[in-house]
Amino acid sequence: MSQLLNYKVEGEGHTIILIHGLFGNLDNLGLLARDLRTDHQVLSVDLRNHGQSFQSDEHNYALMAQDVFHLIQSLDLKKYTVIGHSMGGKVAMKLAELAQDQMTQLVVLDMAPVEYTQSRHDNVFSGLKTVLAQKPTSRKQALDILSQHIELEGVRQFLGKSLYNSGDHLEWRFNVESLWNNYWEILGWAPIERISTPTLFIKGGDSDYLTNDHQPDVQKQFSAAKAHVIANTGHWLHAEKPAEVLRAIRKFIA
Length: 254
Fold this sequence. Notes:
By secondary structure, the chain is of the alpha/beta class. The chain folds into 2 domains: 7-116 and 188-253, 3-Layer(aba) Sandwich (Rossmann fold); 122-177, no CATH class.
């Protein structure tokens, strides 16, 4: 039997499952969780090769969706809403194919059901690998190393949340080697059978992860899809404009 993902459950009521993106962990959608747990049961997960979940040489959407489905079955959840950001949005879409009878609604944050062909994380990977090679002993040291590769402080701070002390130096909680080796799997996508689960795609107005060009792919795979744009925000829309994102989510799931 496959290993269980690390997870956290908060609140009571209809279950909402939150799935983070690449280099993240189960606290990434914490701003959403804090609001939603007031009237729902919120299940936050660490995907494989992330957070405190198991590490594996294999990292693709079929397996990641299976991991989440296995956890759902072990917790005996019958009906649930799923919200995923970025890579987690693709995991959520793949999960919808496995669990359409149980998934009442799906919310995808700034991700399209398509294969992306352009590498977007070369600088991030070079920063992560340099940290591994130089074995910093303090968080400040690690962030200084990252700053030589990654311009945006917000990105460095986000990555810094996955640093931990392994004894004599800092390491990453996510599995850099596996994510690097499987990067084209992460960018990739095998289209799913068309599903009728009500689905909301929330796009960051300034982001190019989800564009009008993706509309035919969305409609081919989701027969009940709606879109909502959050203006003046990028790919990290839930961190930049949590109130607007929550309003859109709550209106959709009400």
